[in-house]
Design a protein that fits this description.
The complex is a heterodimer. By secondary structure, chain A is an all-alpha fold. Chain A has helices spanning 2-29, 34-39, 45-55, 61-73, 87-122, 127-141, 144-158, 170-200, 203-210, 215-232, 235-253, 258-268, 271-299. Chain A has 13 helices and no strands. In chain A, helix 8 (170-200) crosses helix 10 (215-232). The model of chain A has no long low-confidence stretch (mean pLDDT 85). Chain B is of the alpha+beta class. Helices cover 26% and strands 19% of the residues of chain B. Chain B starts with 38 loop residues before the first strand and ends with a strand. Classes of the chains: A mainly alpha, B alpha+beta. At the A-B interface, helix 2, helix 3, helix 5, helix 7 and helix 11 of A face helix 6 and helix 13 of B.
Chain lengths: 306, 548
């Protein structure tokens, strides 16, 4: 177990290092010259060169990468050329909002997804099953930008049930969580359905039935816990999927998280912010996967870590 | 680039009308209908980048900085008429090379300290100092000692002298007719040294100025709040007690919130997809204010790349483009253009008719140039809507005279990079990157985009047109500092631009219009909502009607 953990940690570090190289290479691959962004359109070549020197951007790639990595280890993500402030400060200020939205989204996707999957499995092959599976397919495929605007228009603008975007209270949280959650709910519904169908085929379920337990009792006491466990272990992996959705949904709802930050940065070609958010999200995804792997054997003893 | 200050001219006569002799002026005029008090909410999609006047250079923070800081000069609200601001009066020497400003007494920074001539000198030297990395450095190029200071070889500018605590003198290396405009741009706004040193590189997040508002709150990614400066030297202003800028709101969401009365001004304007809907609803249209911009959208033709080295080919392109139809493509949010200067810019040649839309004549010109069967070329364009659509319109027009233009839709930075290469891009549609004036003066449309100085690698003169004769004429025009001869100077500039059109390195297509939407409670003259230098609105002068 310890050896496994060490190996996984080492692998995770390698992955992060690889990602840092790729994000750093962005600076070179993207056509936007940060020096020109700073210097403005009326700068003379002399000014441009002076700024390039001050920022150390005239140094060779490896020297620059080394310095970047050294700063990174110390938690310094650099400074945004456009916002002219520390990237870490910008990310830290927005991280709580993103975490809150992720929690909200996970609650939504579990509530919706598990319920749908359960119903579909119990009524397997029926019209209910089929329509639920179609719904889950639509949920997985629908562009979140459209879903978000649709929810916003119907529930906030038309029905006045929720505020039109923004951040601060519980009612601000519901629509964006739902929008992110609908995508995940589709996945969970499908997983829950097949997991539940597997469990329902097991002998002990037949035994429970045979000894005359009520159908509901069999489902809730005996089948559900076993069906849910492997799914709960997936939540860690889910972080990656959620990250993608959050970029879009935060922008639609004016949610002040890191997704919105990176969306703005992409539009303004603010490379240090793009690099910083990419690294932080990669870190979260790697961490999520690691946790999922570590937690799995505790939830399902059949899984062994080697 | 697109983030640059926009300006409109509402008044025709410009600034330099103020006499050569020292002149006394009153503070800004107050609106008798305005009721002080109340607060408004303005939304933006993007984070506010910085509120440091030495750094901020996008249209969003440009007018916010103007409300936090002041300069020696400014414009009458809603117009482009220059007036002394923190200067009480000024004097220009007969040779046009020395400008002496007398400052107002009792102007205080938000930290309570009185502003003096030392602060003026410090603020401008800070922008020129290469360590500041200011995009505005180049504006001060005519001040004596600029070269040394800009290269970091001198501590300050030898041309700026503090005569006494309330008098500051600028000596220039050449007569500069645009110098008073330079004293009105944000880069020359006055900052207190002690606060800049206290916050260092983060001064832009903790701005302290002399302006009508002061920063009350800045929650990253959520909101920026301005509150009224009770000690503002210009008594009676501002009218509003508080302005809340809500950040991170998509324009389409902002419009929905405006319709529900939750916000007062959507800072990013009307989203293009909703434009027709808004304009066809009388109730909503009544809340839209339309105005001109100091902007021109144009097609550049690289004179280094055949066949665009032939003036007849360039003229043919000018005659081939159906500008009226292209304006329709963008829902009439612009007016057709026939010359580089926008109509509201002083020096615009009113009598110049430009090239008519005449495909037959264009074909003839092509034949004369030896391209009767047309040719194939590339048209570079920025890849965000509506630019590719506009490029397609141009492509169709060119196809009608036999020119096959392949559209290269690229990211903004790639197009700019291609334009800055000597033989990089044969044709570029400037949309999304077009030149917008920094200040309302005809010279601002020449140097970097049509003069020889801009025809360098990495420059903005994408047609690589360089006419040394015109460069001389331009320098001559800008040395006419005498305000009494302003009209003569504008005439010279008109002639320069008409001459450029004869060589046709550009095909000017349209001048964009500005549309600002506001809530019904907002008060103040319409021109405050399309103020040439304040986007979206002039924060110091607008007010609300529902205060008790």
């Amino acid at each position: 177990m310890i050896a496994y953990l060490c190996r996984r940690l080492f692998q995770s570090l390698l992955i992060l290092l690889g990602i840092s190289i790729i994000t750093f290479a962005l600076l070179y691959l993207l056509p936007a010259d940060p020096v020109r962004q700073i210097a403005g359109r009326s700068a003379t070549p002399a000014t441009v060169e002076s700024i390039r020197r001050q920022l150390g951007l005239d140094q060779p790639f490896l020297v620059q990468y080394g310095r970047y990595l050294w700063n990174l280890v110390q938690g310094d993500l650099g400074r945004s050329y456009i916002q002219r402030s520390e990237v870490s400060e910008l990310i830290v200020a927005r991280l709580p909002a993103t975490l809150l939205l992720m929690v909200g989204a996970i609650v939504c996707e579990l509530l919706i997804g598990l319920t749908m999957g359960l119903l579909a499995a119990v009524r397997r092959g029926s019209a209910t099953d089929q329509s639920l599976m179609v719904a889950s397919f639509v949920g997985v495929s629908a562009p979140q930008f459209v879903v978000g605007l649709l929810l916003l228009y119907v529930f906030a603008v038309r029905l006045n049930w929720f505020p039109i975007g923004g951040y601060g209270t519980f009612s601000h949280l519901i629509l964006p969580s739902l929008t992110v959650g609908i995508l995940g709910a589709g996945w969970y519904a499908r997983m829950m359905r097949s997991s539940m169908i597997d469990v329902l085929r097991q002998d002990y379920i037949r035994t429970a039935r045979a000894k005359g337990l009520a159908r509901a009792t069999v489902l809730i006491r005996h089948a559900l816990p076993n069906a849910i466990l492997p799914i709960v272990a997936m939540i860690g992996i889910d972080v990656g999927i959620l990250m993608g959705g959050i970029v879009v949904v935060e922008s639609v709802f004016g949610w002040p998280g890191i997704g919105q930050l990176v969306w703005q940065a992409i539009q303004r070609v603010d490379i240090p912010i793009i690099m910083g958010v990419t690294l932080v999200s990669a870190f979260a995804i790697v961490l999520g996967n690691l946790l999922a792997d570590i937690v799995a054997p505790f939830i399902d003893p059949r899984i062994k870590l080697r | 680039m697109k983030r640059i200050l926009t300006t409109t001219v509402a008044a025709s006569a410009l600034a330099l009308m103020i006499g050569m002799a020292s002149t006394n002026v009153q503070a800004e005029q107050l609106d008798p209908n305005a009721k002080p008090g109340g607060e408004i909410v303005i939304t933006y999609k993007d984070d506010v980048a910085t509120l440091d006047p030495a750094i901020g250079y996008d249209w969003q923070n440009w007018s916010m900085i103007k409300s936090l800081f002041d300069g020696l000069m400014d414009y009458e609200a809603g117009t482009t008429t220059l007036r002394p601001d923190m200067a009480e009066s000024y004097e220009i020497s007969p040779d046009g090379q020395t400008f002496t400003f007398k400052l107002r007494k009792g102007v205080k920074f938000h930290n309570g300290r009185e502003m003096t001539a030392e602060d003026v000198k410090y603020s401008i030297e800070r922008v020129v100092n290469p360590a500041t990395q200011s995009p505005g450095q180049g504006f001060f190029g005519s001040i004596k000692g600029y070269e040394e200071a800009a290269a970091g070889k001198a501590d300050g500018l030898s041309g700026i002298t503090v005569v006494d605590p309330l008098t500051v003198k600028f000596e220039l290396t050449r007569p500069d007719a645009t110098f008073l405009h330079v004293m009105a741009i944000n880069f020359s706004h006055v900052v207190p040294k002690e606060e800049v040193e206290k916050y260092g590189a983060d001064f832009g997040k903790h701005p302290v100025g002399t302006g009508a508002f002061k920063l009350a709150e800045w929650t990253l990614g959520q909101r920026v709040v301005f509150e009224k400066n009770p000690d503002y030297w210009n008594t009676g202003l501002p009218y509003l007690n508080k302005i809340t800028f809500e950040i991170g709101q998509e324009p389409i969401v902002a419009l929905l919130r405006l319709q529900k009365g939750e916000i007062d001004v959507p800072g990013d304007g009307i989203p293009p997809a909703k434009f027709q809907e808004v304009m066809s609803d009388p109730a909503q249209k009544a809340r839209v204010v339309e105005g001109g911009q100091l902007h021109t959208g144009y097609v550049t033709m690289n004179v280094n790349i055949p066949p665009f080295d032939n003036v007849k080919v360039r003229q043919a392109v000018n005659m081939a483009i159906n500008k009226d139809r292209i304006v329709q493509l963008i829902n009439n949010r612009a007016v057709p253009a026939n010359q580089p200067l926008p109509p509201s810019m002083p020096g615009y040649a009113k009598d110049y008719k430009g090239y008519p839309y005449d495909a037959a004549k264009a074909k003839e010109l092509l034949a004369e140039a030896g391209h009767a069967d047309g040719f194939e070329t590339d048209l570079y364009v920025m890849n965000t809507d509506p630019n590719p659509r506009i490029a397609q319109g141009i492509q169709q027009d060119l196809a009608a005279i036999g020119i096959k233009a392949n559209i290269q839709a690229l990211a903004q930075a790639n197009v700019i990079a291609a334009g800055g290469e000597k033989e990089g891009a044969p044709m570029i549609w400037s949309g999304g990157m077009a030149w917008i004036a920094d200040f309302p003066d005809p010279s601002n449309f020449y140097g970097p985009i049509l003069g020889c100085g801009g025809a360098v690698p990495g420059g903005w003169n994408w047609s690589w047109y360089c006419n040394e004769d015109l460069d001389k004429k331009a320098a001559e025009a800008d040395s006419i500092v005498d305000p009494a001869k302003a009209d003569e100077r504008y005439k010279m500039w008109s002639d320069i631009y008409v001459k450029i059109m004869e060589d046709a390195p550009w095909a000017p297509v349209f001048n964009e219009q500005r549309f600002t939407m506001k809530s019904p409670r907002m008060g103040g003259a319409d021109n405050l909502y399309v103020d040439p230098v304040h986007i979206p609105v002039n924060y110091d002068h607008v007010y609300v009607n529902d205060v008790q």
